[in-house]
């Protein structure tokens, strides 16, 4: 399966539109601006007066819809679509969404999911006992199977009961012949927004950059525990639970989301600049120039430069045509991947003391490569500043880091990492600094953010992942004061 070799893999992206001619084309356009959230595969289901049409495939959206006729054959005035990066199940086309289900009452429905369920294994076992045979291997299908086998009356009641049975991270878009439905988990781990087209049609998607792309205006964020039902009569806001506790994934602000998106009223680019500014304030260093690691740390590097007064320059470029190769997750492949995508502008770095700002260190591959490259280009010293705290703990809510084995900061102290990446100094943003930089989302614990990857404070029980997590903790032996919430 082709995919870019990346340090961190994104989330999935959702886009849906109800009541607009050209629905499939607009869904394509919206998904195009969400491509950063998933590059493994893409799919669109359209709805022409109750008749569903689907096209899906592996690879980038443009590869899946290479033949322009394909999109024109997705007839109808409503559609939902998905770009995938897997967190569960295999990488085959059967796991590419939206998935389709037949249903006694509504006939057929389509489903797309962003996130990761923490009790998927348990639910799969329960459904298997009921005689369900599965169409795919990821966790996303399970909600559809729960709905179709529910004892409740009516699609919405079945959906509400099913949403209360699953745990973890989930933003869903569903479509029946007569409605589009969005739902968000009780912690609101993933962003999900509602917008309106100029003629009144409703759009629901992962990030506001997709609203901008199709010319929709922002209406509201989907709140934790809500289900939003869109029909030809308009939009109804309902909920499947009121027992909610906002814990939005802080990595959305740090890395995943596009900088031109606004999540819960906070500009991603501005939040990243504040992260850069705060890491500068927390860990100042004398230098001649600030460089960012393209792409995702450029906002933070600008913030570092503004706060420190050290000029920012473009000392590094990213090849726009990055080789897309078969991933075999070997370190040799990763090293080659980084070397093919990042290079140095020698005139900017030669003879200089450099502050190198990146948004995160996962395995350390990128930092190590770049420090070497900068020194080879004549840099006098390279001080690495990371605009987020050290990534030490797994994520079970939708980021594909379910083990700490490869996390350099889980297995090494900061001075050890500094030595390994051959930097002259290394510092990370503190967790309070991160929270302050993003801003107070609300007055809930942790200001409405999930920071579990940095401090091990999980806002929910971990269910099927608890035993694996306990084993990680025992292995790491560095876990103090962390807990799994309830
Ligand atoms: O320590 P590592 O394992 O190398 O991972 C960390 C790097 O991965 C991410 O970038 P990515 O390469 O995904 O590209 P992007 O910044 O252009 O999105 C992140 O922004 C860091 O640069
Ligand atoms: N990144 C995601 O949101 C993944 C969704 C789902 N768990 C899958 O693996 O397909
Ligand atoms: Mg990067």
From TrEMBL:
UniProt EC number: 2.4.2.14
SUPFAM superfamilies, per database record: N-terminal nucleophile aminohydrolases (Ntn hydrolases), PRTase-like
Keyword DNA damage among record annotations: no
The protein's annotated pathway: Purine metabolism; IMP biosynthesis via de novo pathway; N(1)-(5-phospho-D-ribosyl)glycinamide from 5-phospho-alpha-D-ribose 1-diphosphate: step 1/2
Cofactors named for this entry: Mg(2+)
Pfam families reported for this sequence: GATase_6, Pribosyltran
Reactions performed catalytically: 5-phospho-beta-D-ribosylamine + L-glutamate + diphosphate = 5-phospho-alpha-D-ribose 1-diphosphate + L-glutamine + H2O
Start and end residues of each Glutamine amidotransferase type-2 domain: 12-233
Extent of the signal sequence: none
Keywords: Glutamine amidotransferase, Glycosyltransferase, Magnesium, Metal-binding, Purine biosynthesis, Transferase
PROSITE patterns noted in UniProt: GATASE_TYPE_2 (PS51278)
Family: In the C-terminal section; belongs to the purine/pyrimidine phosphoribosyltransferase family.
NCBIfam families, alphabetized: purF
Protein name, as recorded: Amidophosphoribosyltransferase
Natural source organism: Secundilactobacillus collinoides (Lactobacillus collinoides)
